[in-house]
Model the fold of this input.
Amino acid sequence: MKEKENSSPLSFKELPAGFEFPATSYELSESIVAKYLEAVDESADFMALRLVPPLAIAACAMTALAQSFTVPPGSIHASQELEFLKPVPIGSRVSCRGRIAQKLARGSLNLVILEIRVLDEGGEPVLSGKATIAAPG
Amino acid sequence: MKEKPNLQDIHQGDSLPSVSKHVTQQKINLYAEASGDFNPIHVDEAFAAKTPLEGTIAHGMLILAYASEMMTQAFGQSWLKGGKLSIRFKAAARPQDTITASGQIDSIEYKEDIPYVNCSFECRNQNGEVVISGGSVVRLQ
Done:
């Protein structure tokens, strides 16, 4: 699915706030969308309109970003913010950019807030968001 | 899928069209293939059985897709080009769970003559436990 410009996983714990992950690009192909729609049991409206479901874009972006670093065992995806800016046609190639926006300590947990931005082939933003990962200290 | 809803059909307090789905390990595996997220806690039953969760769990984003489907049903393509959500993952969803996404329209406000619909929603399992809770905003344009 993805083509990474830098495939070396980085240690999540050692990355500072403000760190920008290597850009990743991937194609949202018809087969990925078909598999996604079957997995989430959603109607074929998106196929008829030739559009990628917005959560499919987000999921692929999160996975692409997550493959750039390693997290401690027991880490959880605690919260998510997403903004959908533009429909994406099936077959589009998009690029994903991410950075560590914030690192916080809350009790026994380390919280890391990741910002993601997905751009289309013309460089226009199609999706943005923030994910909070809670990792054991 | 509609282009956008008729603003006259949208009222504060209206319920969003609920969406119920049955989670299976097969769907979780398919989701892993589509998203590329093969974390063993989702797809390796033997591994997951030895963790504190004592079994596989669905990807949080898979369950969030049910809420997004609800928003698409309510607001059509407006959701795809002007939707925002903010959620918390409260509990894990497991194979054989039935998850229901439901929500309501909290308010409609105008910014520079553009209507924005504010909603709150949640996803609950068959036992009533909240798996996801959050809010969303849709720009109707």
Summary: Residues 1-6 of chain A have pLDDT under 50 and may be disordered. The two ends of chain A are 32 Å apart (CA to CA). Residues 28 and 57 of chain A are 8 Å apart (CA to CA). The helical segments of chain A are 30-40, 45-49, 54-66.
